[in-house]
Amino acid sequence: MNMNSTVSNSSVSIKDLSLNFGSVSVLKDLNLDINDGEFLVLLGSSGCGKSTLLNCIAGLLDASEGQIFIKGKNVTWEEPKDRGIGMVFQSYALYPQMTVEKNLSFGLRVAKVPQAEIDKRVARAAEILQIQPLLKRKPAELSGGQRQRVAIGRALVRDVDVFLFDEPLSNLDAKLRSELRVEIKRLHQSLQNTMIYVTHDQIEALTLADRIAIMKSGIIQQLDDPTTIYNRPRNLFVAGFIGSPSMNFLHGELIKSGDGIAFAANGVNFSLAAYDANEALQPGRKVVLGVRPEHIKVNENAGGEEHDATVDIEEPMGADNLLWLKHAGHTMSVRVNGARRFNVGAKVKLSFDMALASVFDAESELRL
């Protein structure tokens, strides 16, 4: 491949990227195009390669193979400062001896940006992030949320096209995470810059992203908008990773039922009449049926067959109650209205919204 070639139709373009640490392959022939102004979230569990990929884009790690383009320019071997990116780390990485104002302006002063321009950029960042009253304080005098705002502001003053966030909210408590998540979303809507955001928190991913890239073992398992990933997961891994609690899985096989197809597991049948007939749905095929907790009704018909179940555990969660039920040899989670209460051991009737269920091949684990 020509190392001087350019890619101009994406804000960030990654071509055939691989990274090895000795004999360990961390990223594997990865290809990814990120649109101009897009908010892309790299989501996955620890060790999946998401932060490694972000560090390659930032220039903090050198790729073993492949190329990285930013705004059409091949930056594969460029220094981080020459890539036109601003980065926000998990640790705030603020200079403790400097005021907020000095922390914000430090990179600009090193780059010998004129003082008038520095003042203008710092004032703009402080206004956007609502940290004007903090400019004369030092990091030790700030809360965790305020420190992270300053860290974001330090990237913001660089006036770059692409912002990289490496789990910026993971050190904060739940309330602060929720508040700053809204601030980051508002920031993106205001600036319309390209943002690449690494997290292991699916709530952050679903609420912030235009698209989510779910990673496992250095490979992107699915790249799609949040609604599609939640409702039409490409494989069993994605289906189980997204959702809290995760999708219920029943292992069984397809059988013929009248003129149609049904799913059978432990002597219980589920009609698949809601699905269009296709070559993938054939009698005898071993499959996994996936149903979200909110797509199961308890003691209220959802328009399908009813099935017997027993309440095992009830978890009150405020607006919702989470029920863990024993059904046909499976343990299933069901989300119900928080005003409804059930006794442990109670016998209930379940009905499944099969139009919203997913069917996966048991061997390949791919969606059918």
UniProtKB/TrEMBL annotation:
It is a peripheral membrane protein. Keywords: ATP-binding, Cell inner membrane, Cell membrane, Membrane, Nucleotide-binding, Transport. It comes from the Bacteria. GO terms for biological process: carbohydrate transport. It is found in: Cell inner membrane. GO terms for cellular component: ATP-binding cassette (ABC) transporter complex, substrate-binding subunit-containing. InterPro entries: AAA+_ATPase, ABC_transporter-like_ATP-bd, ABC_transporter-like_CS, ABC_transpr_MalK-like, ABC_transpr_MalK/UgpC-like, Mo/tungstate-bd_C_term_dom, NA-bd_OB-fold, OB_MalK-like. Residues 12-242 form the ABC transporter domain. Its main location: membrane. GO terms for molecular function: ABC-type transporter activity; ATP binding; ATP hydrolysis activity. It holds the Pfam family ABC_tran. PANTHER family: ABC TRANSPORTER ATP-BINDING PROTEIN (PTHR43875:SF14), MALTODEXTRIN IMPORT ATP-BINDING PROTEIN MSMX (PTHR43875). Belongs to the ABC transporter superfamily. This is Probable sugar ABC transporter, ATP-binding protein.
